[in-house]
Amino acid sequence: MITRRALDRAERRHGGPARAGDPSAYMGAATWVGAPPERVFGLLTDWPRHREWMVLTSARLAGEGRVEAFTGVGPFSFLDTMTITRWEPPRLVRVRHTGRLVRGEGVFRVEPHQGGSRVIWAERLELPFGPLGRALWPLARPIAGALARHSLRRLARLLS
Question: Model-level pTM?
Fold first, then answer.
């Protein structure tokens, strides 16, 4: 089990939570996976396989250092374009979200841990829709966190 302390460390490494007046928001999730970091990182960065573990998302490499992910169902979906800004296999991949709806930074960090790996997924997002987005984030954050945790559990099952 990943502790809140581990998430706090990941949050600090990633730039910390949004501050008052800052239009961005933090979301993070972590899990233990019974596989070595090399295998975990390999699946995390096999973009077409995201549909196997990331809830309602399919992704693809869209050129050198660029990724496109399509998330949602029917009219309730969006394209998330990303640029890979840091690549350190098998431990870290960092992206810059550059889409119309999703903007900000995301990171997958993989660390050796207790005979397997600890996977940390953190996002620092620029909330869309101005004041409305900031007002709705306290309602959306638990849902986003739950979906991220569920996705990471699916990833862990694929690797076990």
Answer: 0.85
